[in-house]
Amino acid sequence: MTGGGLLAAGLAVGSVAFTLVAVVGLYRLPDLYARAHATSKADTLGALLGLGAAGVALGGEGSVKLVLLAVFLLATAPTAAHAVVRAAHDQGIDPWTRGAGHGRGPDAEPEPEPEPEREPEPEREPDGGAGG
Amino acid sequence: MDALLFAAAALVVLGLGALPRLVRGPTVGDRVVAVNALGTTTVVVLALVAAALEEPGFLDVALVYALLNFLLSIGLAKFAVERGGVL
After folding, report:
1. A73/B26 Cβ within 8 A
2. Dihedral angle sign, alpha carbons of residues B53, B56, B59, B61
């Protein structure tokens, strides 16, 4: 096997390893935010390594498209994770914290229904005088 | 090249491993994150197969798949919330 072949194989093994980390994180982490954190980083790095392996093996002919693909993935995977997480935060899903009220584990059911928003406290009457 | 095909097969298995999270993930966001990870893995599998079979035309499929994957995530995130300003 040539040096380029060895390099491509090593990059492919690294890609599989990082994707494995991402998939394990998808199961072991407790809530959406942590899962998005795991996949958006480990999966992106695994994808970049895999595209590097393909680029090394393919040589010159497809490398422009591969570089384009790598740049696009590097830009969009964290952006998509950010959008999903922000949408979840706007929906009012609380991040998991260890033992703070609801100790939701990795396999816990979602909370039955989100707590109704607390009604705003009635406006206090402004004082009549300045403490006269 | 065999190593790339083995890596592609391993990535297919890992991508299928994300499916149970897609099925039972408690919120919509969990499912979208799982689909996103699956789509990224699919793009890498396409690139590796293109390199292993020496068919650069597969890279176009991978590129379009990456674009559609990004649009899917942004679209679901946008329409999952009422006001829609997620970016």
Report:
1. no
2. negative
Residue A31, CA atoms < 13 Å, CB-side half-sphere:
17
Over the stretch B60-69, which tens digit does the pLDDT of each residue have? 999 999 999 9
Calpha distance A34→A31 (Å, rounded): 6
Q: Judge residue A74's burial from the number of C-beta atoms within 10 Å of its C-beta, 0-12 exposed, 13-18 middle, 19 or more buried.
A: middle
Give the closest residue to A23 by CA, choosing from B78, B29, B47, B41: B41
Q: In chain B, which residues have their Cβ closer than 8 Å to the Cβ of A86?
A: 77, 86-87
**CA dihedral for A27, A29, A34, A37, sign (positive or negative):** negative
Length of chain A: 132
Using CB atoms within 10 Å of the CB of residue A23, give its burial: 0 to 12 exposed, 13 to 18 middle, 19+ buried: buried
Determine contact, residues A53/B51, Cβ cutoff 8 Å: yes
What is the ipTM score, two decimals? 0.87
CA B46/CA A121 separation, integer angstroms: 57
Pick from B5, B19, B44, B87 the residue to mutate for testing the A interface (most A CBs within 10 Å).
Answer: B44
- What number of C-beta contacts closer than 8 Å exist between A and B? 172
Cβ separation A23–B43 shorter than 8 A: no
Instruction: Note the pTM of the prediction, 2 decimals.
Output: 0.79
Identity (one letter) of the amino acid at B70?
F
